[in-house]
Amino acid sequence: MMSKIKFLILALLMAYKFDAFSQCNDELINICALDIGEATYLKEFKVRLKKAKKGKPAPVARFSVVLNKGTHYRFTTCNAKEYDGEVILQLYDADRLLGSTYNVQTGKMYKAFDFICRKSAVYHLFFSYKEGKEGCSVGILSFVNKED
Amino acid sequence: MVRIFFIIFLLAIGLISCKTDSTKTGDTFEIPDSLFEEEPLVIAEEAMDEIIQNVSSPVEMAALIKNTNAPFEQKYLCSPDLTDNINTNFKRALCLGILGADLGYLNMYNKTGSVVSYLSAIKKLSEDLKVGQFFDFTTLKRLATNNTNLDSLMYISVSSFNRMDDFLRENSRSNISTLIITGVWIEGLYLATQVVKEYHNKDIAERIGEQKIILGDLTIILKNYKSDPNFSVLIEKIEKIKNEYEGITIRYELDEPESIEEEGVLKIIQHETSYVDINNEQLNNIIKTAEEIRNFIINI
C-alpha cells in the first residue's frame, strides 16, 4: 500500500514538473520570437497536430494571410521540445507552392525562409509534420524591411 | 491511513493550484452578458477567424509610411483623451483598434514619449472590455520609458493585441474582435490617406488601392451583426467606402518564383507582380471618405 502511495506522490510531482517545462503553449511564441533576427514581428500561427493514422496522409493545419507587395517577409518555425514532430511550413498562392521549410529533393529542413513579396494577395500557409509525427509548433510571420 | 490520503489530497490540490495556465494571464472574472454574441452567426466561426486573420497588421502600414521618409506627424493620430467619454462597448472596441493602430505608428517612429499615454488609454479600454489581462502594462510602460529595448516594446504590444484577439474569438466575442479589427483597419487607412494627401507617394497610393482585397471580407464579417443598430450604421459607412473602391482594379503579371539559398538562409523571390490601377479622383474620394468614417467613429 505504501509503495502505491509513494508512486502516486511521484506521479503527481512528475506531472507537475513536466508541465512546468512544457513548451506547447504561448511561451513557445516568446521563445520563437527571439529567433526572427533583425525583423519585426507581425503575427504567429499556433499548430498542434496528432500523429497521422496508419495509411492516412499527415494531418495539416491551414491559415490564410494577406501579404503585401514590396515587403520582405520572414517565416520562422519552432517546435515544442516535448514532441518529436518537425514542422514543415509551406507557403501557397492559391494552388501554387511558392516555398517550403522542407526540400523534398535534398531532404533538408529549414527553420525559416524569407519571402520577397511582389504581389499583394491572400496567401495560404500549410503546416504539417515530417513523417506524420505528432507535434506542437509555432510559425512566426515577421518582416525584414521594405524591398528596394 | 486516512491521514496519508488527506496529505496526498492536499498535495494534489496544492500542485493543481500552483500550475499556471499560460493562456490565462489574469484572474477569472464575470463578463457582462452584453459582451457576448446573442444571435447565431451568418457565416461560420472558422471563416470569421480566417477573415479576421487576413487584416494586415497596422505595423506594416506604419512601416510603409516610414519607409517613404514621410516625417512623423502627431496631428494624424487620435487623441488618447478620447477614452474619457466612452460608455459603450461598441465604441470601446472600435477605439481600441484605432489606438492600437496609432500605437503601431508611434512605435515605428520610436516616439516612446507619447507611447505611455496611448498605453494608458489602451489599458482603460481593454479593462473595460474585460481583456486587460493580455497586456502587461507595467512592462510596456517600463520599456517605453527606458527607450532602450524598442524591439521588445513592439513585440509585446503586437503580441498582446494578437492574444487578446484570439481570446475574444475563442470565447464567443467575435463581435468585439470584429470591431477592434475594423478600428485597426480604418485607422491604418486613415494614416495612409493623410500621408498620401500631403506627400503624393506612389507606393502608399498603391497600398491604399490594395485595401480592396480585404474590404469585401471586412464587410462580410460586419454584416454578421447587422441586426445590431450600431453595427448597421457602421456597415453603411463601410459600404460607402467600398463603393469608392468599385472602379479600382488590380492586375497581375504572371511569372515563376525563384528559390535561392544564401549562407544557409532560404530566400524565395516572387516574380509574379500585382499592379493597382487607381486614378487621382478615386484616390481623393477614398481620402475624403476615410476621413469621414474615422471622424464619425471617434465622435460617436
Largest sheet strand order of chain A: 1-8-3-6
Secondary-structure-derived class of chain A: alpha+beta
Classify the beta-strand content of chain B into a percent band: 5-15%
Name the overall outline of chain A.
Answer: globular
Class by SSE composition of chain B: mainly alpha
What does this structure look like?
The complex is a heterodimer of chains A (148) and B (300). Chain A is of the alpha+beta class. Chain A is 18% helix and 44% strand. Chain A has one domain (23-146): Jelly Rolls (Sandwich), CATH 2.60.120.380. Chain A is built from two helices and eight strands, in the order ααββββββββ. In chain A, the strands form two sheets. Chain A has a four-stranded antiparallel sheet. A four-stranded antiparallel sheet of chain A has the order 2-7-4-5, with no helix packed on it. In chain A, a hairpin with a 2-residue loop joins strand 4 and strand 5 (96-100). The N and C termini of chain A lie far apart (73 Å). The relative contact order of chain A is 0.28. The model of chain A is unreliable at 7-20 (pLDDT under 50). Chain B has twelve helices and four strands. In chain B, a hairpin with a 2-residue loop joins strand 2 and strand 3 (265-269). Chain B has 300 residues and is mainly alpha-helical. The radius of gyration of chain B is 22 Å and the shape is globular. Chain B has one domain. In chain B, the strands form two sheets. A two-stranded antiparallel ribbon of chain B has the order 1-4. In chain B, strands 2-3 form a two-stranded antiparallel ribbon. Chain B starts with a helix and ends with a helix. In chain B, helix 7 (150-170) packs across helix 8 (174-199), helix 8 (174-199) packs antiparallel against helix 9 (202-210) and helix 10 (212-223) runs antiparallel to helix 11 (229-244). The interface between A and B is large, with 48 and 50 residues. Strand 6 (112-117) of chain A pairs parallel with strand 3 of chain B, so a sheet runs across the interface.
